[in-house]
Design brief:
Elements lengths: L17 H31 L12 H6 L14 H7 L14 H18 L10 H17 L3 H19 L2 H24 L5 H16 L3 H20 L7 E2 L5 E2 H19 L10 H13 L20 H22 L4 H35 L5 H21 L13 H11 L7 H24 L10 H12 L5 H8 L9 H11 L4 H5 L8
Antiparallel strand pairs: 1-2
Helix pairs in contact: 4-5, 4-6, 6-7, 6-8, 7-8, 8-9, 8-10, 9-10, 10-13, 11-13, 12-13, 12-14, 13-14, 14-15, 14-16, 16-17
Length: 530
């Protein structure tokens, strides 16, 4: 105890005790408070103990995966201080359709704390974008509502189990996701025989399984469920349904909100697997959303004027539409963040932007697929056919990067875009100074730039990005074009998609990248092709 005693000099005639008081306070903080916390924690543990005869063995992850529904009835689950405090039971009163134990709680919380902020581009702790917070909260509320339906809940947990598994490299969570998806699909088959095809709860169940299969990287199953949901929505609108119909079963939300939720996984599926979306972005979606766009038009921000013309190499109407739309969406997005709109006007602007972005993204992927198939079938593909592919992929990569932040340090929906962009640029390389080089040099410079910036942003070390394939090709391309000043490069990039707000930050990247040695710039291209 001697070490815990503080000896203080005391003089009855000297009342200047402040130095003694400070020392006493520090002594109390260093000794008494930790001991007080330990005693309170010990008392809490003692109060939480229950008789051994009532204790149940804590299930493992494998137990949770293997247990069948009929082996674990909801009505006889043990509820005690032991289960609540140590298992993390988040549903002690059995209000939800499935058990939410410690692991399920962590999985669902991962969606709330990491996926939602990434999807809505919101700071996970403090956001200045109130509307994005409102939308994220509405998203969360809708998914929590889905936990009251067993099949939907299983699919939602399965989806996020896959995402957590990707983020944490957990094989057990991959297995858990597979088991939960199988149970959810079994319940969906049963539901299809008894529930009307126009039931929004049925749609939501399918959407959750669709999202789960996408998260699990199961392309064929994702396509099946996406097409299934698309067919049901066609039937609903063909029967006279409207975007403005109210869905009482889902807290009074409108079909418009559900449709925006449905086209989001469609975008992720198309991007992840580089396949055409399930919803028709050319005719059906524009027809269905036409009444909403007409209603929202008076509340929309003015179409911003673009100070830079598109590069002449973008010579097709569809590609020009996609680039113009991307520019418009992100200019409006920045303006909306700067201007305080009334809540309803802000909501209409956001919904219109999400719809147009989905249409644009769907067209870019469809265009890539079309010209990829043409080049595979052709004996000698043309430079123009290759250009449609790498322009589409670069615009896709750029727009996805602008919309989404990474979740848990990883881009969960990046898919195969960068690999495909690498491949098509490699297949279409040409000799420096050739006619083909001069024709496509601006387009290829921008495509290399998009890839290089992606490498730069995801680099885990300060120098790793310098060795990236896209970075070395960008430097080689810029050097071959005689570009040594960042402003000259920007003048070309502005003819495609470029964020002026990143000008200064990317200038530092450019200046450092251009210091690569000639050998690094060529990166092994002895024949000087790029």
């Amino acid at each position: 105890m001697a070490g815990n005693i503080l000896w203080v000099n005391y003089e009855a005639g000297n009342m200047r005790t402040r130095p003694h008081r400070d020392r006493i306070f520090r002594h109390i903080q260093n000794n008494y408070r930790p001991r007080d916390k330990q005693e309170k924690a010990k008392a809490l543990r003692i109060s939480a103990k229950i008789p051994k005869s009532l204790r149940v063995q804590k299930p493992t992850v494998d137990d949770l995966v293997e247990v069948e529904d009929n082996e674990h009835p909801r009505g006889i689950r043990s509820v005690s201080p032991e289960s609540v405090l140590k298992k993390g039971n988040s549903d002690p009163f059995h209000a939800l359709a499935v058990p939410i134990e410690a692991e399920e709680n962590r999985i669902v919380t991962f969606y709330r704390d990491f996926i939602l902020p990434a999807e809505y581009n919101v700071d996970a702790v403090i956001s200045r974008d109130i509307l994005a917070n409102v939308r994220a909260k509405a998203d969360w509320d809708l998914h929590v509502t889905g936990l009251h339906d067993k099949g939907t809940a299983l699919a939602f947990i399965a989806s996020n189990a896959s995402l957590v598994a990707i983020a944490s490299n957990s094989n057990s969570l991959h297995n858990k996701s597979l088991a939960l998806r199988s149970k959810s699909m079994k319940l969906l088959r049963e539901k299809l025989t008894v529930v009307p095809r126009s039931s929004p709860l049925l749609w939501w169940h399918i959407d959750m399984i669709w999202t789960a299969e996408i998260a699990a990287n199961n392309g064929p199953a994702a396509r099946v469920h996406g097409d299934m949901l698309s067919k049901l929505m066609h039937e609903y609108f063909d029967a006279g349904g409207s975007l403005f119909d109210v869905v009482e079963e889902m807290k009074g939300r409108r079909v418009l909100e559900l449709m925006l939720f449905f086209i989001y996984p469609d975008c992720n599926m198309a991007t992840l697997f580089l396949i055409r979306p399930s919803f028709d972005v050319y005719e059906w979606l524009p027809k269905i959303f036409a009444p909403f766009l007409a209603m929202a038009e008076p509340a929309l921000l003015p179409v911003p004027e673009q100070p830079y013309e598109l590069d002449p190499i973008i010579d097709s109407l569809e590609m020009a539409y996609c680039f113009d739309t991307c520019r418009e969406i992100f200019t409006r997005w920045r303006e909306r963040k700067a201007v305080k709109l009334p809540e309803m006007a802000a909501m209409l602007n956001m919904c219109q932007g999400l719809y147009k972005w989905a249409i644009c993204l769907g067209k870019l992927i469809s265009r890539y697929c079309t010209f990829h198939e043409i080049c595979q079938a052709a004996a000698t593909p043309t430079g123009w056919e290759y250009a449609q592919q790498y322009l589409s992929l670069s615009a896709l990569r750029w727009s996805k990067a602008e919309v989404h932040n990474d979740a848990y340090g990883k881009n969960l929906w990046a898919g195969k875009v960068m690999d495909a962009l690498h491949a098509v640029l490699e297949r279409s390389k040409c000799a420096v100074g050739s006619e083909s080089f001069n024709t496509w040099k601006n387009a290829r410079l921008w495509a290399f730039y998009v890839g290089a910036i992606f490498e730069y942003r995801k680099s885990s070390t300060s120098e790793e990005w310098l060795k990236g394939w896209f970075n070395s090709r960008f430097v080689h391309q810029a050097t071959a074009m005689g570009l040594t000043d960042w402003d000259d490069v920007v003048a070309i990039l502005q003819g495609f998609l470029f964020d002026p707000a990143a000008h200064e930050k990317e200038k530092r990247w450019f200046d450092k990248a251009m210091k690569l040695s000639p050998a690094q710039k060529a990166d092994g291209d002895a024949d000087d092709t790029i």
